[in-house]
Sequence to fold (456 residues):
Amino acid sequence: MTSVISDIELKSQLDRTIIDNKITNGSAAKKRFRFHTYKNLLILCLAFLLQFTAFGAMGNLQSSLNTEANVAILGLKWTLVLCQIPYLLYIAANYYPKAYLMYPAAALVGLAAAPLWTSKCSYLTETGAIYADMKHVHKDVIVNRFFGLFFMFFQSSQVWGNLISYLVLKPKEKENNETLSMDVKIYDKCGADFSEKEYRGAEVINQIDRKTIDILCIIYICICICSILIVIIFLNQRRKTSRNKVSVMLCDSIRLLISTIRQMKNINQLLLIPLTIWSGLEQSFLSAQFTKGFVSCTLNAKYVGLVLIAYGICDSIGSLSFGQIVKYFGRWPCFVLAAIINYSLIITMFIWKPSENTIAILFVLAGLWGLSDAVWQTQINAFYGVLFVENSEAAFSNYRLWESIGFVLFYIITPYIRIRIALIILLIFLSLGMFGYGLTEYRWKMNAKKVQAISS
Fold:
């Protein structure tokens, strides 16, 4: 799942930041501070690049290779380190992929994700705010620059991690005299008819050699360890500065939970739930079902990384491009374009049967899916920020909740359904989502016109 930070969320983080600048005057001191600021920024960027190079790529391959199944006290630095460890454990669990190891490791990652990203945002925000104060510029400018640099590194992890998997994984080599037994069935239902249960019981052509899978796991484990060591050795400690005591923060958390539940009474929020669930569904479909039913089944898991490089590149370019396109053409044309792309891709997957001779089409499908994903991940988030200005925290809590529900849903039902059923589910939620979005956009514009008419 991508981690997109909206302007509203970023502003909320900035407003809670207290500048505690104790820099002494003098050019030498300022040069040292500048050096340490950018050193910490680059260390954080590099640490996340390494960690998600390993974790992201292993997450993409997991369904294809393995068919078993407090900040104020620690400080931001050690919170980051502590939250990186579950990611390392998850990657290590893939070396011996058993359900009793994979499920607890995945659960630990889920628990660690929120404090990891919160600590990262706090570290970048406070560092940027202090540096902006020294440079006598507005903190929004510096913090946005720091986040931009960070996500440039972070998004590239999709490319490097998948490239490593492509270079390392190798198919099993069969002996010249080895032939398939007459009673062994070759699996030939790649594409929309793919079923994971049937796939497990059939002879898989070009199956990946387990030795190369173990080598890949070891490489990713080493990369993740390097990420943790870089943070421990080179990143300076920074403790979270807060205006509030722990008891007040606890009350604020309870208040946020209550407001999140109350937010569901908002008509616009209810209308956006199908589109938000779709956002999670389309991400998990690509990483869990497309990779296995179209790529691994047709070729082998070695090519999953190569095909997903196209997805990562197009997603990154699209995320940057659509942010500018919206300024000139508006939001709804981008949503319509993304919907048309996804409708076209889903229909194509319904009727097209992949083969080894049509590998180029897999790259096109993945690239276009990445392009549309860029719209969903950036513009849904931005729309929430515009629509729910007065209750942004509760709105974004709902956004993360419903997106996560969609994301988890396919991972739960994937082993029990054919891809054709998954495509039908995607069509239903995309249609409901676009219908709900259209009504919400209309209601928002009508309300804006009423406010403008009253004020004039």
The two ends are 44 Å apart (CA to CA). The first helix runs from residue 7 to 15. Confidence is low (pLDDT under 50) at residues 1-8, 180-184. The CA atoms of residues 6 and 242 lie 22 Å apart.
